[in-house]
Amino acid sequence: MKRTRWAVASAIALASMLTACSSGQTDTTAGNGDSKPKSGTIKIAYLQKQGDQQYFVDEGAGAKAKAAELGNVEVSMFDLGTDSDKAINALDQVIAQKFDAIAIVVPDQLIGPQVIDKAKQAAIPLIASDDVIKDAAGAEAPFAGFDGAAMGEKVGTEAGTLFKQSGWSAADTRIISAYKQDLSVCQDRVDAADKAFTAAAGAEVKVIKLGTDNSAVDAQNKTGALITANAGVKHWIVYGCNDENVSGVVTALANAGLGANDVIGVGLGAYLACKDWQAGTATGFKSALFIDGRQVGASAVEALVKKVRDGVELPAKTVANTAIVNKDTWQSAGVKCS
């Protein structure tokens, strides 16, 4: 009889254990994870594509500054370059090392489902920084960054206004729109810029799409052939996905003999545009949309800490502020030019 009672008790205990284990994750939001509030030091991994670009350097600085402000938070930066395999390997590494939370700027949005699934399986909260990623069902991970369309609209409006003020003819003017063409955030920016330019300029100017890897070197190298193919163009307008693209194109135009007065470059970032303004040199970089990477890094870390420390769900979207600046206003706007 005792043996029977013991067997029944054991069966009940086992059933309770199985029920507890099968409860799984109750949060269906991609990237939120099911980790429980934690006390003590919080370890956050910040994985970035092209981590050597100034914007991402600033983002890392903002993340670490916010960590210091919140206290008992450690942020480790990982530079993924443009390598998706490296991104997955780094993600496996931080999961194995039991980091408490992850922020990631993916080199390629196509790895989004894999990234989200790995973090979810490990019950680690994840936030997508700068570039939106989705899981296999199409649900977006929590996001910290900028509104791509709104950014592009501001850039296009500024470029169109400057064109209208220049008195140039649309017939001998061309727009170079330089960006990484398989990146959705870049597409959002330049599409909005194209529409806003036409509205602000009151004229149709031919747009030449220039595919790049979003680096200044690649943009500069690829602009040479474009200039040769458009030898009759007198004036150029330049915008794109980031400051690197505009800087590369503006440099190539200058090297080809185009004077600063024949180029209207509107950057996106301001961290490269400000270098010409700081030096006081004549430049085709007329203005730029100031985006503060520090603000994005800080926002991502703050949201992750609240999730890990207090159990507060990650916000679906955290959108940072932007502002157009030029050689006269960049310093007062808070642009850090290093």
From TrEMBL:
UniProt organism field: Micromonospora rhizosphaerae
Protein family (similarity comment): Belongs to the bacterial solute-binding protein 2 family.
InterPro entries: AraF (IPR026266), Bact_Solute-Bind_Prot2 (IPR050555), Peripla_BP_I (IPR028082), SBP_2_dom (IPR025997)
GO process annotations (BP): L-arabinose transmembrane transport
GO cellular component: outer membrane-bounded periplasmic space
Gene3D superfamilies (UniProt xref): 3.40.50.2300
Broad class of the protein's primary localization: other
Keyword Signal: yes
Domain of life: Bacteria
Alphabetical keyword list: Signal
Localisation: Cell envelope
Domain Periplasmic binding protein: 44-308
Residues annotated as signal peptide: 1-22
GO molecular function terms attached to this record: carbohydrate binding
Protein name: L-arabinose transport system substrate-binding protein
